[in-house]
Amino acid sequence: MTTIPLIVRRVSLVATCVLSLASAYAATHQVGPGWAYQLQNKINQAAPGDTIKLTGDIRMGKAVTFNKANLTLDGQGYTIFDDFNGNTFQVRADGVTIKNTKFQGSTNRNWRGFIVGYDSVGLTISGCTFNSGMMGLMLPHTPPRNLNFKSNTFNSVWYAACWHGREVLAVPGSNDDAKFARATQAGPLYIDDNQLYGDFQGGLRFDCGNDGNYTPASNPNHPLRFRVMEEPTRFAWFGRSYVRNNTVSGNRRFGIGFARGAGVTIQGNRMIISATPDNYIEAIHFENQSANMDLFDNHVTISHVGSNPAREISGFGLVSFTDHGAPPRFKWGCKNILVGWGNRVDKKWPLTNGIGLKAQNVTNGRFNYLNMSAMTSPSRPYAMATHTENGWNKPQDRWQFTFTQVGNNPVINF
C-alpha cells in the first residue's frame, strides 16, 4: 500500500528535475526586422522550450509554422504584416506561447486566421493586438484543450477566436472511438480580458456542429458524423472553462456564441451590440444542445445602426438548431442553462425589435434576477417560443414557467 505514494513521489521528482534542466538550458533567439523565412529559420533552429524575440517588424509573404513544443514568441510590440492573404502562423506543436505581438491584416476577409491551431494542446495567446482580418485565432476541426486566450485586442476582426465545426473525420485518432473522444472531450478554456472593437461578425465563437452537411467534406453520411451529432463537446472534460471580463463592442451576428458545447462559465463580460440590417443578432448565444452553461454579471447594451432595424436583436439567445439535414426539434434545444446573478440587458434608441431574452426549446432553464427593466415597449423583455412539429405542439415542447417580480429583477421558474 505504501509503494504507490513512493512511486508518485519519484515520478514527480524526476519530472521536476527534467523541467528544471529544460528551463536552465532554454535559449533566447532574436529576429527582425525581416521576412517570414527569417522567422521560420529561427524557429527551425530553436529547441523545444526556447524563446524567440522580435527586434523589428516581420513581413510575411508566406506562412510560418511553429513546430517545436513549448516554444515562445515574444513580439515585444513589433508587428507581423500579413500581406499574402493566407494563414499567418500555423501552430502544429503543443505548449506554444505567442505574446506581445501585433498583427496587421487587410480588408480581404477570406476564410483564414492570423493564428491557426492544428490540434495544439496548451496554446497561449496573450497581450497581442489584431487589426483588420477574418480571424484572430482559427481552430480547424479539433476542439481546443487547455487554451489560454487573454488580454488581446481586436480591431475590425470578424472573429476574435473561432472554432467552426468539428470535422470529425479529420480529427486525429486511430479509430472511430478515438476520433469520437477527441471531438467531444475538450477544455479547459480561459478566455479572459480581451477587447473586441469595430465591425465584427462572430466575436468569440465556438461552433461544435458537425460541418459535414455544409462543407465539401468526404463521406458526408459516415456513421461517425451522426454519432457526434447526438453529443455536445464537453469543455469541462479536463476542467471547467471560463469566458470572463471581455469587452465586446461591435455589430453583426454574435458576440459570444456556443453551438453544441457544454461546461462553460460566462462571467463579467461587457457587451455593446449594434445591428446592421441583418438576420438574428444576439450578444450571448447558445444553440444546438449547448448545456451546463452558467452566466453571471454580464451587462449587455443593444441598439440598431441607422434607420433599418434588424429582424431581431437579443441580449441573450437560447435557440434550437441542428445541422446535417436533421429538422429542428425539441431535442436540439439547450439544456441546464443558468442565467444567474448580476445579468442585465439595456437598450439604446432607435431600437424597435429588441429582445432581452429569447428562448426556444430549453430544458431546465433557470433565469434568476435577470434585469430587464430597460426593455420597455416596443422592445420586449422576453420571447418564449414553443416548437411545432407535424402541426402539433407536443406537451414537452411547451414553455411552462411562472413569472415573479423582485424590484426590477424578474425571476422565471420553469
Account of the 3D structure:
The chain has 414 residues and is mainly beta. It is 12% helix and 43% strand. It has a 20-stranded parallel beta sheet that branches. The protein has a 15-stranded mixed beta sheet that branches. It has a two-stranded antiparallel sheet with strand order 34-35. A hairpin with a 2-residue loop joins strand 36 and strand 37 (409-413). The longest helix is centred in the first third of the chain and has 23 residues, at 3-25. The radius of gyration is 23 Å and the shape is globular. Residues 1-22, 211-216 and 387-414 have low confidence and may be disordered.
Short description:
By secondary structure, this protein is mainly beta.
What integer value in Å does the Rg equal? 23 Å
Major beta sheet, specifics? 20 strands, parallel
What global shape is seen? globular
Low-confidence stretches: 1-22, 211-216, 387-414
SSE topology:
Layout: H1 3-25, E1 28-31, E2 34-35, H2 36-45, E3 51-54, E4 58-59, E5 64-66, E6 72-74, E7 79-81, E8 89-91, E9 97-99, E10 102-104, E11 113-117, E12 124-126, E13 129-139, E14 147-150, E15 153-164, H3 176-184, E16 189-192, E17 195-199, E18 203-207, H4 223-229, E19 233-234, E20 241-244, E21 247-251, E22 254-259, E23 261-267, E24 270-275, E25 281-287, E26 291-296, E27 299-304, E28 313-319, E29 335-339, E30 344-347, E31 354-360, E32 363-367, E33 380-385, E34 388-389, E35 392-393, E36 402-406, E37 409-413
Parallel strand pairs: 1-3, 2-4, 3-6, 4-7, 5-8, 6-9, 7-10, 8-11, 9-12, 10-13, 11-13, 12-14, 13-15, 14-16, 15-17, 15-18, 16-20, 17-21, 18-22, 19-23, 20-23, 21-24, 22-25, 23-26, 24-27, 25-28, 26-29, 27-30, 28-31, 29-32, 31-33
Antiparallel strand pairs: 32-37, 34-35, 36-37
